[in-house]
Amino acid sequence: MVSSPRSSGADANPENSALFELFTSHVEERARQANDSTRIFKGTQLTDPRVYLQCPNSPTANKYRLAVYHFKTASQILQKYEKDKVDDLKDCELLRPVFENIVYGHVWEKQYVFLFCSTENTPNLINQYIMFKPDDIFAEYAQYLILWRIESKAKQKKNLLSDFESAKKHIKTAELLAFKVSKNVDCQPCHRVILIDLYYDLGSKYVATGQPERALDSYQKSFELDISNYAALYGIAYMYMQSDPEKAIELFKNLSTWRLNVRSNTLMHIT
């Protein structure tokens, strides 16, 4: 099983190499934009990677570095898989690291999921893989993430009703997967990581579909599984803004204090 690596800060480690590649591609894209201004309005706009290189030991830099590493690794492994189908368990062993790295990349930072170079046949490979390994949570979650990404691109040409229906379908899939993962969360540490991410993702989709009670419940479940998950705490505070503004303000204060403490600890470590 692939374990999510922790950055050591060494220049030669693979996580730093992956981030350096992203930095290089960012600089190259900036140069292309200088010659073609229309490129600015195309593709995904991301924070300049140089922001993370300025404080390489910060929690934020570590998070982005690991996300880039996992998505790049997943792409490289998939590219080396020369078959167009999954024939047996041996093929499954070759593909399993792909799904694990997709999931860990998404856990660390969702916005870099575009770095995973999926192919038209990737959904078919996952379906065939799951036929051999129906209880592989990594494959199921990777399937959910990839299909959501594919449909998110396609739905740009559809109307708002189709967007809403698409979100409802993915919510149902995520709810079923969360229930399945929750049954073994205490026995499998990796299941806890996935469940934290799933609950947070569900919270966001509940917000988008006008289901505030369910959104709050999902954010709370995500936070209860990891009390250092400030994104989930922010979601909880956001949901209280209408129903209980005073509680929302108190939560936002707690969030600000927590982030300042993290920043102070990081600066102490750097200096």
Automatic annotation (TrEMBL):
Keywords: TPR repeat. Gene3D superfamilies: Tetratricopeptide repeat domain. InterPro entries: TPR-like_helical_dom_sf, TPR_rpt. Coiled coil: none annotated. TPR repeats lie at residues 196-229. This is Tetratricopeptide repeat protein. It comes from Mytilus edulis (Blue mussel).
